[in-house]
Amino acid sequence: MLRTSAGVLHIWTSKLVSTRKTLVFINSLGTDFRIWDDVVMALGDSFNIVLHDKAGHGLSTDRPRPAKMSDFADDLDAILGHLSLSKVVVCGISVGGLIAQSLYQKRPDVIEGLILSNTGMKIGTAESWSARISAIEAGGIASIAESILERWFAPEFRERKQSEYALYRNMLVRTSSQGYLACCQAIRDADFTSDAKKIAVPVLCIGGEHDGSTPPVLVEAMARQIPASKIEMIKGAAHLPCIETPEIYSSLISTFVEAI
């Protein structure tokens, strides 16, 4: 646990070994760090692993509204300082990718590489996020859960792994509404379009063929703007390939990080 100006953040780390590179993972909206379980299993013997639940998610304290993307980046910066970490590779999925970009703006000196997964320089529109905020304020997260989950997971996953699908629905609807809404506000107002071309570290952009939240065209547009980037599109996956195709996802990460 770490106490920051926003409250208490929940952190998990593997045993930190000085000779290994360190991977820092940032979750998507409406999830906690259990989405990385299979990735940690695959990569934990080769890399240091740091997971954290951003404010308002998992066991972390809600962030007061309104919130900015830089607030979440400040929390992550505090975690890296608390753990005395520098020259890390940050992997952010969805809003986690926006937080990673915000952290790079603030602290490029601590980042050795970026994995921007199922994300973009800007996600959605102000109108779409304001509409989601209004819907949740009126009916809670459960009222729009099915439409969110349809964008998270490919049809094959939803049909073949119904039990797992039900568990991730639980994860979503049990997220703190206040924490979720603060994050929605931060996403609505975040735009890193003018900053992408300034990223000067190696970047791996990952997308999912069936991603309904951050479609392939969004990931491709981001990759074109980042000078030292490469892009990988995972066939058959949607918004959360760390859950749907963890073997492929982990292999892409390992190959990228080892090449840095």
Features:
alpha/beta; 8 strands; Rossmann fold; globular; 260 residues; eight-stranded mixed beta sheet
Polypeptide structure, described:
This protein is of the alpha/beta class. The protein has one domain (2-259): Rossmann fold, CATH 3.40.50.1820. The chain has helices at 37-43, 69-82, 95-106, 126-139, 145-152, 155-160, 162-173, 177-189, 216-225, 241-244, 246-259; strands spanning 2-4, 7-13, 22-26, 48-53, 88-93, 111-117, 203-208, 229-234. An 8-stranded mixed sheet has the order 1-2-4-3-5-6-7-8, with helices on both faces. Helix 9 links the parallel strand 7 (203-208) and strand 8 (229-234). Helix 1 (37-43) crosses helix 11 (246-259).
Name the overall outline: globular
Number of domains: 1
Largest sheet: number of strands, sense, barrel closure: 8 strands, mixed
CATH superfamily: Alpha/Beta hydrolase fold, catalytic domain
Query: H/E element string?
Result: EEEHEHEHEHHHHHEHEHH
CATH third-level topology: Rossmann fold
CATH class group:
Alpha Beta
Instruction: Supply the CATH architecture.
Output: 3-Layer(aba) Sandwich
Radius of gyration computed on alpha carbons:
17 Å
In the sheet with the most strands, the strands line up as 1-2-4-3-5-6-7-8
**Distance between the amino and carboxyl termini:** 30 Å
SSE inventory with pairings:
Blueprint: E1 2-4, E2 7-13, E3 22-26, H1 37-43, E4 48-53, H2 69-82, E5 88-93, H3 95-106, E6 111-117, H4 126-139, H5 145-152, H6 155-160, H7 162-173, H8 177-189, E7 203-208, H9 216-225, E8 229-234, H10 241-244, H11 246-259
Helix pairs in contact: 1-11, 2-3, 4-8
